[in-house]
Amino acid sequence: MKKLINDPDDVVDEMLEGMVAAYPDRLRRLPDTQVLVRGDVPVGGKVALVTGGGSGHEPTHAGYIGDGMLDGAAAGGVFSSPTADEFEALIDACDAGDGVLAIIKNYEGDVMNFETAIELAEMEGVEVDSVVVDDDVAVEDSLYTSGRRGVCGTILVHKAAGAKAAEGYDLSEVTRVAQKVIDNVGTMGTALTSCVTPEKGEPTFDLGDDEIELGIGIHGEPGTERTETMSADAVTDKLTEAVLDDLDLDSGQEILTIVNGMGGTPQMELFVVNRRLQELLGEHGLETWDAWVGDYMTSLDMAGASITVCAVDDELKELLGAPADTPALTQTQ
Amino acid sequence: MKKLINDPDDVVDEMLEGMVAAYPDRLRRLPDTQVLVRGDVPVGGKVALVTGGGSGHEPTHAGYIGDGMLDGAAAGGVFSSPTADEFEALIDACDAGDGVLAIIKNYEGDVMNFETAIELAEMEGVEVDSVVVDDDVAVEDSLYTSGRRGVCGTILVHKAAGAKAAEGYDLSEVTRVAQKVIDNVGTMGTALTSCVTPEKGEPTFDLGDDEIELGIGIHGEPGTERTETMSADAVTDKLTEAVLDDLDLDSGQEILTIVNGMGGTPQMELFVVNRRLQELLGEHGLETWDAWVGDYMTSLDMAGASITVCAVDDELKELLGAPADTPALTQTQ
């Protein structure tokens, strides 16, 4: 499988160099780490937001570093967790004395290493809260995961908590809105093709020419069902109904939706999915307040998409709609 | 080849519906056409900017409709030109009496149909200028093209001319800066895999497992050279040197660069390319003023990338850096 890379062992290192080369005024790499932070950390007068996890999900995580979202992110190897040392360096660099919120996707390595880092940081007197995102409604427990997996809904946690922090609220308030998003969001994805990791150079899993996987994880972990290829409308219905079953929303509820590309999916197809998604939500009596379409949390070169639905109230609408200025997400008001 | 579509005959229509469903406040579809325009056209007090071409290059074209960029865009079938009638409807809808600039990528069908539409509009008293973008340095003449092809540099024409129009300058000034970008920009791309059109469902061209195509067109048209797979750095050097040979810039020249994904390329790989690109430009004594990395002009699900270099002076820096607010490109100042 062909890739635009050099030595697979260098791919994360070179990607991070390429990110800093693209955004030298916005991103800074902590020496001898795979941690990227805002150029101006620590940013005084606000809670710092940090996250991280395996590489291969770009623009997650570093693409969301900047005004109104994250202060920094630790990048692990491809699909593998950053070390506790890297997470600790991240927390230390970003803390300005107003506390730190760690946003963790629910994978065992991320949770374990972030928790160790938090303990170490707290011993040094840093105030740290954490939330664990587990928005994937497809499966309970999975490869790498106890409980549900954290996937594309994580972006909305960055966005809402980032806006709350930018407004100067304290750590307990920033943590509260992060958890509020987690309590109100659900996601499910599908794969048309497997991802191919640089190291292996072969598909992570086998999928026939006439098969798709429903409920796929962002590392190619098994989903809920392998079926014959279906129309975009049928796939959209399957994913959306599973998410809505989980969220159990009342008719008239306002929502934000994301149609997220997995990395190898043309935008054309994402918009075809969005067409049916919005139609179906209307049939359920739900009111789309905002609709995002694009590549937000990918799985290398996987072809496929995920659908995220987040119930919003006035508070979340204000935060999710607030200005942000990051490499991957810029919003004006 | 699997795709998230329904009937291939409906894919453009359903994509456009999905776009309007995502951005109902920003985009409006002209009845009985495949033309999308700003929700508030005609926008008084400014020159209108219009473009269009075959579908399959998303977010080109409609993704750049909005404040500081385009007023509207006509979408043809996949990789086929919009009709003269559609281009005329686009011009008519966007003209507010201050004139219209048509930004045309250099493909025979686009040029012919846009020119016919412009003649018809002028007969109705609309003042229309046009520019033809031909930034692809790879080949003279090609399938669909006399002269060079128009590719990713087109986005910079939209951006600079859009900013000039937003500042209230007249048609001759808006046209001048559009042409100034064209005179200062070059692009070259590579394909690791063929694109697959919805209609055909098979690769447009054959490329071996250990081959790549240099100088590829955005419809899969042949490039300059088919070679064995190379490292990202070697590919970057090949593409960049060809662009720099064409532009013939002086040492110390300020430039804007784009590393553009072709649709099926993970962001990880684009940043690996950007790393070497910026290193190489430094070796040439060129000064990168701004670096864009992402999917700006794609070729459906093609894996590959293109590199664009645009020489900038104070005027172009002001325009290319000006605020914009569109689905695919948002800049704050």
TrEMBL record, chains A, B:
Keywords, comma-separated and alphabetical: Kinase, Transferase
GO function term, MF aspect, one: phosphoenolpyruvate-glycerone phosphotransferase activity
Membrane spanning stretches: none
InterPro entries attached to this UniProt entry: DhaK_1, DhaK_dom, Dihydroxyacetone_Kinase
EC nos: 2.7.1.121
UniProt key word ATP-binding: no
Span of the signal peptide: none
Segments forming domain DhaK: 7-329
PANTHER family: TRIOKINASE/FMN CYCLASE (PTHR28629), TRIOKINASE_FMN CYCLASE (PTHR28629:SF4)
Annotated NCBIfam families: dhaK1
Entry protein name: Dihydroxyacetone kinase subunit DhaK
Organism field: Halorubrum trueperi
Gene (UniProt): dhaK
